[in-house]
Amino acid sequence: MNQEISAECDYLYVKASGWFSLVEAKRTFVELLEAVARHKTKKVLFDGRRVTGEPETIERFYYGQFAARAVKKYAEFGVSPATRFAYVLEEPMRDPERFGETVAVNRGMFVKTFDILEDAFGWLQIPPAHQPLADPDK
Q1: Is residue 60 exposed (0-12), middle (13-18) or buried (19+ Cβ within 10 Å)?
Q2: Domains of the chain (ranges plus CATH)?
Q3: pLDDT one digit per residue (tens) for the chain, 138 residues
Q4: 12 in Cβ contact with 45 (< 8 Å)
Q5: Which residues pair with 62 in a beta bridge?
Q6: What's the CA gap between 135 and 51, in Å, rounded?
Q7: Residue 51: strand pairing partners
Q8: What is the pTM of this model?
Q9: CA distances (Å), 11 to each of 40, 55, 57, 116, in order?
Q10: Secondary structure (DSSP) of 59-105
């Protein structure tokens, strides 16, 4: 998996692509948390519409568990436990049952998955003036 991270006005915008693997997802999430700490932001928009694969239920569990634990761990590096993470994914990456999201939320993480980019901006309370231009490929 690859990701491009850009610091916008008051949030991080992450554009991810590639084939999903749990190992890569964990590695890139740590990179993301390092950027959150560096930029001292409390909002992350993860645009994973170009990520492909079909995660198994257990992988969704492990990723949600890992992400929630990592956010807590990175508090010592300046990541606020109240940081909001909005994931924009397409099925089958986005689980309609939101199992991974539920695992992370139950462990104290502020995260929500979406299939529409504008809904994610709304949940993060990012005004249209601060949103990047639409990606012509997605």
Answers
A1: buried
A2: 2-130 (3.30.750.24)
A3: 999 999 998 999 999 999 999 999 999 999 999 999 999 999 999 999 999 999 999 999 999 999 999 999 999 999 999 999 999 999 999 999 999 999 999 999 999 999 999 999 999 999 876 666 555 455
A4: yes
A5: none
A6: 15
A7: 18
A8: 0.92
A9: 9, 27, 30, 18
A10: HHHHHHHHHHHHHHHGGGGT--TT-EEEEE--TTTS-TT-HHHHHHH
Written as six digits, the tokens of 43 are: 């909002």
| CA separation for the pair 57, 76 (Å, rounded) | 30
CA dist., res. 56 & res. 37, Å (int): 30
Quick check: 85 and 46 in contact, CB under 8 A? yes
